[in-house]
Design brief:
This protein is 71% helix and 0% strand. With 372 residues, it is an all-alpha fold. The chain folds into two domains: 109 residues, no CATH class; 163 residues, no CATH class. It is globular and about 75 Å long. It holds the Pfam family DUF5677.
Length: 372
């Protein structure tokens, strides 16, 4: 009869394998993964001994980590193959030995020789967890909408992209990569502006936007000649001489008031075009600061990480509020297309509760860094 430790190992193994299958949408051969798991454990110990690495108590690789390394290694090598070829590979001793050897080395180097960057936060810290919660809940609601309405589906995809990007920024902050988080926030801010304009400047603008995006896919496109002709005609009609500027921002010409103010109040660029028409000119200084980080300079090297961290946390909150505001309007408008209409009705109140938690955390962050 197996002892309680062995029973726990069996249950944890099964749970982790089920979790990985759920995350990837791929179902791996459980018997094969289990056999590789047993072999990798032995090779892992050998690798530690060969490299003369002595671990502290409870500092070894966890079961879920080992299973994950094996699972993703196997999926990487087989997900594009037909089932019969995958089965053949699983019985090939050369492949098995390669998997065991490679995975054992991955684990030893990545888990025990890795130099980890010191971070003042983690995914479990309140300011990170609250952001993730707001984004996860928003994605949960956005995932409930079903139908064939092109505008509904298109805007939905952009909202999802924004929420996933926010989660990515938060992940970078949690890992101590605050400089990279600033760069990604810059990209998010551009998307934030696009969403505000698309959601507030007219019903047909989304379709103009989608049609305009065809200009980004002209290379190798069988319709390239047709698109080039259309581009030339539009540039001429709007009096635009710079093609690249029109490709990037020309869809703004269809926003009410933009064409009338073109060349005076508005231009085909981010600062005097997209950001201004979105009503976010007050945040251009933050965007400009983030842009400096894209290019290596003494400025980037001399600024402390905690400065980038503080900058990102507060700018991210402003972006999240703006995007969630647009999601609220979207949810109200398309409520009847949702599989969870009652959840849609509760969305504003629920998400505001999460935003209030973030605001409360930000006050603590401000107090922590008041002298820095």
């Amino acid at each position: 009869m197996p002892n309680i430790i062995d029973q726990m190992e069996v249950h944890i193994f099964a749970a982790q394998l089920a979790r990985l299958s759920r995350l990837t949408g791929k179902t791996a051969n459980a018997d094969f993964i289990r056999e590789m798991y047993e072999r990798v454990k032995d090779r892992y110990v050998e690798e530690l001994q060969n490299r003369k690495i002595r671990l502290r108590t409870l500092d070894g690789a966890r079961l879920d980590e080992i299973v994950s390394y094996i699972y993703y290694y196997h999926i990487f090598h087989t997900s594009h193959l037909p089932e019969e070829l995958t089965k053949k590979l699983e019985s090939d001793e050369k492949y098995r030995e390669m998997l065991v050897r490679d995975v054992a080395v991955y684990i030893v180097i990545n888990e025990h020789l890795n130099v980890e960057k010191i971070s003042n936060t983690s995914e479990y810290s309140p300011e990170i967890a609250a952001y993730n919660m707001a984004c996860s809940y928003s994605l949960y609601i956005l995932g409930s909408f079903k139908g064939t309405d092109r505008r509904m589906n298109g805007i939905n995809n952009l909202f999802k992209k924004a929420m996933v990007t926010i989660k990515s920024v938060i992940h970078l902050l949690a890992a101590g990569n605050s400089c990279d988080a600033v760069i990604l926030w810059r990209h998010l801010h551009e998307l934030e502006c696009v969403l505000i304009v698309l959601c507030t400047k007219g019903e047909d603008l989304f379709f103009r936007y989608i049609k305009h995006m065809e200009y980004f896919d002209m290379e190798g496109n069988p319709r390239a000649e047709e698109l080039q002709q259309r581009l030339s005609e539009e540039c001429k009609a709007f009096g635009v001489k710079e093609r690249n500027a029109f490709i990037n921002y020309g869809w703004l010409e269809y926003v009410d008031g933009f064409r009338e103010g073109f060349g005076k109040e508005y231009r085909l660029n981010f600062k005097d075009g997209l950001q201004k028409i979105a009503g976010l000119s007050a945040r251009h200084a933050a965007y400009a600061s983030a842009s400096k980080i894209l290019h290596p300079s003494a400025w980037v090297v001399t600024i402390r990480d905690d400065k980038f961290y503080k900058f990102t946390v507060f700018e991210l909150f402003r972006s999240l509020i703006n995007i969630v505001t647009q999601i609220k309007g979207y949810v109200a408008r398309y409520r009847d297309f949702s599989e969870k209409p009652a959840e849609c009705d509760n969305f504003p109140r629920t998400v505001d509760g999460y935003l209030n938690m973030i605001a409360r955390n930000n006050k603590i962050i401000a107090a922590k860094y008041i002298r820095k």
